[in-house]
Design brief:
By secondary structure, the chain is mainly alpha-helical. The chain contains 10 helices and 2 strands.
């Protein structure tokens, strides 16, 4: 729609001149096509995963023993359709396998130009992202094209909020009434950091020990979410400083705002809960001094 109301336009201009309207970040035009192609690749990958799941579910449906191999690899797909006694079921599985083979070719053709374009757009950020345990080629590409510029986030809290890694609080006049807005933010960043949190635990004893400690404190349901949040904060810090991932520093920073929702932080990044506690302690000390007859 075309907006031509002069009164509304004047009010918007006044607000913009006074700095009351934050300007949105404009995605670079030279990177949009590659980002859209990468998102299309994710769509193809999900369709491929549905085909693989259908084969596994059909195996369970007919009470057959497990395949025992990862059929995601082409070398392990020989003889899968012949395991089913019914000809119609065999044909259904053959269709799934044929589509998987075709998807593999499509994915290879799509990934190659994306990787070439990424090395031209920002090779340094792509390399730094791959130093994080659990972030490989595909996840680093997703993070690169969904972030594109880490400097557009003044604080790490805003970055975590954009990635859907914190809860949005419903608060008014200092009173909080639950949370909402779970769909606000970038769904692709949420997926990437969630996948990285799971992959980070593979062949990583230090990461597994960290997950055990988080499970004891927050429960199994929240442990992986907190780990994904912690990884996002580490990625923000390393991209800001242009340094590689440091596992020792990542583990030593445990507990510093891990799992802290944005709603509990003020505009300067200070913890409002701790600030309230400190204020209450000071007030109690002053009241005690007055009762004892001492000057504060």
């Amino acid at each position: 729609k075309a907006k031509n109301d002069k009164i509304d336009a004047h009010k918007i201009a006044v607000l913009l001149r006074g700095g009351m309207l934050p300007q949105a970040s404009v995605y670079p035009a030279e990177m949009r096509a590659t980002r859209d192609l990468l998102r299309r690749r994710m769509h193809l990958m999900r369709k491929r995963a549905e085909l693989l799941a259908h084969i596994q579910n059909t195996t369970s449906q007919y009470n057959l023993p497990e395949i025992g191999k990862k059929i995601a690899y082409k070398a392990n797909r020989d003889g899968v359709a012949e395991r089913f006694p019914e000809p119609a079921v065999q044909k259904s599985i053959e269709v799934d396998l044929a589509l998987i083979d075709y998807d593999d070719e499509l994915l290879r053709d799509v990934e190659l130009p994306i990787l070439k374009a990424a090395t031209q757009h920002d090779a340094t950020t792509l390399y730094l992202l791959q130093t994080v345990p659990g972030i490989g080629t595909i996840l680093s590409l997703v993070l690169l094209y969904e972030l594109y510029d880490i400097t557009r986030f003044p604080r790490v809290q805003e970055f975590a909020s954009y990635g859907r890694l914190v809860k949005c609080a419903k608060a008014s006049n200092g009173k909080r009434a639950g949370s909402s807005g779970t769909k606000i933010g970038n769904a692709h960043l949420k997926w990437a950091f969630s996948e990285a949190a799971v992959l980070c635990l593979r062949e990583n004893p230090a990461g597994q020990k960290l997950l055990v400690r988080l499970e004891k404190t927050h429960g199994k349901g929240k442990a992986l979410t907190i780990l994904a949040h912690k990884l996002s904060r580490a990625v923000y810090d390393m991209l800001k400083r242009k340094i590689a991932f440091d596992m020792h520093r990542f583990l030593s920073d445990e507990g510093r705002g891990v799992g802290e929702p944005d709603a509990s932080l003020d505009t300067q990044g200070m913890n409002l809960i701790e600030t309230t506690r400190n204020h209450a302690s000071i007030t109690a000390s002053l009241n005690a001094s007055e009762r004892l007859g001492h000057d504060p």
